[in-house]
Design goal:
Blueprint: E1 2-5, H1 8-21, E2 30-36, H2 42-52, E3 67-71, E4 76-81, E5 104-109, E6 123-129, E7 134-140, H3 143-157
Parallel strand pairs: 2-5, 2-6, 4-5
Antiparallel strand pairs: 1-7, 3-4, 6-7
């Protein structure tokens, strides 16, 4: 699925629609990779996703903390920003194994920095910044991801 957003509000709204389209949480961990350059809308998208998931309070980029955990009514959202990692081996100290639990959803910015240490994604969002818009392409990499995109497409087509 491809989308074009012309403002931060539109990027947040797309993240919110994806959160609302998530198939009912089951025993599986859900993983979303958010790929793209600085300023391409990844954190803005994650903010919309978090708020639509029921996260209250401020949702910030975890650029300096690397991991933020947000309990929400039906899921626990784990937002990772791996931009500052120098080596994938630094992932060991983040305690992520303790967060790979049922009813958890991970949003991972800069997943390529954690190669070999991260679970495979269910969905990948590729973000591209353009002069006056962001291009966002969502692709599925698992059965959960495919079902998720179907739910999003149906929601997008329903008036």
């Amino acid at each position: 699925m491809r989308a074009r957003t012309g403002s931060p509000a539109e990027t947040e709204a797309l993240g919110a629609r994806l959160a609302r389209a998530r198939p009912k949480p089951d025993a599986a961990l859900a993983v979303l990779y958010l790929e793209g350059s600085l300023g391409s809308g990844k954190t803005t998208f994650a903010r919309g996703f978090a708020q639509a998931s029921g996260v209250t309070g401020l949702v910030r980029s975890p650029t300096y903390t690397l991991v933020e955990v947000y309990p929400a009514p039906s899921i626990t959202l784990v937002h990772l920003d791996l931009y500052r990692l120098r080596s994938p081996a630094e992932m060991d100290s983040l305690g992520l194994r303790d967060l790979a639990l049922p009813h958890h959803t991970w949003l991972i910015e800069w997943p390529e920095k954690g190669t070999g240490y991260l679970p495979e994604p269910d969905l990948t969002g590729r973000f591209t910044a353009q002069a006056f818009a962001h291009e966002i392409e969502l692709t599925a990499a698992s059965a959960l991801g495919s079902a998720w995109l179907v739910q999003l497409t149906v929601a997008e087509q329903t008036p």
